[in-house]
Amino acid sequence: MLQPELERACARARAERLRTHFYDAERVLILMQDDPDPDAIASALALRTLLGRNRTGAPICTFGTITRPENLAMCKILEIDVEPITTKEMHAFDRVAMVDVQPSFLEERFVNVDLVIDHHPVEEPVRADIRDVRPSYGATSTILVEYLRAADVKISQRLATALLYGIKADTLGLERGGTKADLEAFTYLYLLANHNALRRIERPELSETALDALAAGLAKRRIVKGVFFSHLGRVATVDLIPQFADFGLQAEGVEWSVVSGEVSGDLHVSVRNVGYVKSAGDVTRAAFGDLGSAGGHRTMAKAVMPLRDLLEAGGETRSATGCQERIIERFLRALGQNGKAH
What we know:
By secondary structure, this protein is an alpha/beta fold. The chain has 2 domains: 2-202, Alpha-Beta Complex (inorganic pyrophosphatase (n-terminal core)); 211-335, Diaminopimelate Epimerase, Chain A, domain 1 (Roll), CATH 3.10.310.30. It has helices at residues 2-22, 38-50, 69-77, 140-150, 157-171, 180-190, 195-202, 208-219, 240-248, 280-288, 307-313, 320-335; strands at 28-31, 60-62, 82-84, 95-99, 113-118, 128-133, 222-224, 227-234, 256-263, 266-273, 293-296, 300-306. The strands form 2 sheets. Strands 3-2-1-4-5-6 form a 6-stranded parallel sheet. Strands 7-8-9-10-12-11 form a 6-stranded mixed sheet, with helices on both faces. It is globular, with a radius of gyration of 20 Å.
């Protein structure tokens, strides 16, 4: 019995230290990644609740915008306000907290931040007064659930729904990278959440444009050595690419899904895998890191690069076929063997 009691005492101490650090701040900035996902949005809302703040005293912000339909639906249905911000506007805040992201992940440079809570692997030393980075966890939402429970903060139905969806989205319903801690948080939240709202969030409406893009992607698909490849060509919004990458994993015999598309001259590549193969982040970085930004974690990753750089590196002219061939060639080379090695 000593170990659980000790863990609870440590958790309470962490929560108290965090709340004390922000206690005398007039305004707190809660910052997420440039295109916040459900885990980030839920974690930001949870941190604001933990600090006992409202939208005025602790706005939830991003340097970018939310693009994916289900993430937009989450904010609309659960009435979560996510505000854009610039680096100049950060001076209006007494404290800066980051959730589901680290300073090195953003293009903006930070001398120091007050708090970082994240579950992604550390790429560079995290410079923050309080750091809580747990790469073994499947979701940052799980970490925030532990803080809320340790501080005896009531979790409302709205917050429970957001956190449950955050864990569900980042772990594919605990099938991808989930731990005992994620399972415990998931089980606790399940009884508190609004499942009708959750269903509405998970099934956002698809526009005619989206349906056309996905139909074209299916027609162009190629499955090579257990990898589902599809190049969507030019797409109106980036969110269609990861959506279709998730879908590609459902194909029979597939362990990897690699879907690409062009947006404003840049090539976006989304990578997914089944979880028991090589790290998606490592393979994606090896395949495309020399051409642009690339990385992620074990089961999901992305790369963004100028399209012309990919084609020039392969001696290709600008064509959808040439683009897909270069992606297949680079990815399979980085994957090695057939992707089954751990």
